[in-house]
Amino acid sequence: MLDGPVIAEWLPVSVAALVVLLIAAGVAGWVDAVVGGGGLIQLPALVIAVPKDVATPFILGTNKLSSFFGTLSASWVYLRKIRVQLVLLIPLVVGAYAGSTLGAALSRYVPREVLTPIVLVAVIAVALYTLLKPRMGLEHEPRHDRAAAVAWRAGAIGLLVGFYDGILGPGTGSFFVILIVGVLGYGFLQASVNAKIANLTTNLAALAVYGVHGEILLVLGLAMAAMNVTGGFIGAHMATRRGSGFVRIVFLVTLSILIVKLAWDTVVQFTS
Description:
Elements: H1 15-34, H2 39-49, H3 56-81, H4 86-106, H5 112-132, H6 147-167, H7 172-184, H8 188-212, H9 218-242, H10 244-271
Helix pairs in contact: 1-2, 1-3, 1-9, 2-3, 3-8, 3-9, 4-6, 4-8, 5-10, 6-7, 6-8, 7-8, 8-10
C-alpha cells in the first residue's frame, strides 16, 4: 500500500494512493476504449494501493465497477459514430455472457498456474501474427456474406473469449478484437466497437456477482469510474477519428504489456 493514513473507513486508501488510482483509472479507460486491456493497468494499481487486509474479491469488484462505466461510455461514443451489425453483435454478446458465466463457475477448479503459460504462448502468437500481417485489419473487408455464417462464428468467438474472461481475464478486449479481425475480416476500428459491447456484457455479469455479495468498495469504485469514463470518452473519440491504423498500434503496445505481465507471472509461479 502507498504510505499514509487511510482517508476513512468507507475509502480505505491514503491520499497518495487515491491520486495514483484515479490516474491509473483514467489511463486504463483510455486504453480500454481504444483496443481493450485497461485492466492490465487498473487492477495492478488496485492491488498495490489498497491495504493488504482488504479481501481480494473487494479489489476485483471495485475494478469491475470502474471498468463497467468506462466501457459503457466508450461504447456509447462508438455506437454514435460506427454502424454495427446485429447479426454479429447479438450472438457475440450472448456467447460472451454464457462463456463468462461458465468460466467463472469453473475458475475455482482450474489452477491458475496451468492457464498462465498457455495464455502467454497464445498472446505471443497473436502479436507475431499481427506484426507479420501489417495490412490486416486496416481495411474493413468482411469475409462472410451469409447471416448464418457470421452469426455462428460470432457466437463461437463470444463463447471462447467470454470463457477466458470468466476463468482468467487479462487482455479479454484484445482477444475479442483480434478474433473479430482475423476470423470475420473486420477492420480494427469496427472490431473494437463490437469488442466493447461484448466486454461490457462480461463485466456486467461479473459485477452482478460481486454486487450481490457486497464485495465492492463503492466510494472508491465510483471515484475511479468517473476517471475511467473520462479516459474512455477521450480514447473512443481518438480511435474513431484516427482509424484502424491507430487502433492497430495501440493493440500491439497493449499485447506487449500483456506478454510482459504473463511472462512475469509465469516466472514467479515456477520459481516460488
